[in-house]
Q: What sequence folds into this?
């Protein structure tokens, strides 16, 4: 499988592909759908996708925050390709991007079920478990420098 990672613009054709993937992987299993307000948050963020040809296999979004901290969110890997290292490959590329932009901490709101994945990438749980989109989450972070 030959894959490539690229960034793309909000409301581009690749954004539409990522939105569909996010919906299938992150929202539909919880019986949720995106609201206009949620999608508006994507407007000023950096969108990453891992593609095979023109097919998106994984995606994530980076949101700049203060104190040189970058938030990684909406990480989704096509269920047919989970466990094959694509999420790791994409996450590491996003970390390098953040580091190159002068950020020194990456953090995320990780679903409790995804915590072992983030821990395998060097993230630590910060604080107590909390509920977001009706399921348990942790704030997890990693120092990039």
A:
């Amino acid at each position: 499988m030959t894959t490539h990672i690229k960034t793309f613009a909000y409301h581009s054709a690749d954004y539409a592909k990522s939105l569909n993937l996010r919906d299938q992987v992150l929202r539909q299993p919880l019986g949720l759908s995106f609201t206009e307000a949620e999608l508006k948050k994507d407007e000023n963020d950096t969108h990453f996708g891992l593609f095979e040809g023109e097919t998106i296999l994984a995606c994530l979004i980076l949101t700049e925050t203060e104190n040189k901290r970058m938030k990684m969110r909406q990480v989704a890997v096509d269920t047919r390709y989970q466990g094959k290292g694509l999420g790791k490959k994409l996450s590491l590329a996003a970390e390098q991007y953040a580091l190159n932009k002068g950020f020194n901490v990456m953090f995320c709101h990780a679903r409790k079920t995804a915590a072992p994945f983030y821990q395998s990438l060097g993230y630590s749980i910060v604080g107590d478990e909390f509920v977001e989109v009706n399921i348990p989450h942790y704030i997890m972070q990693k120092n990039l420098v």
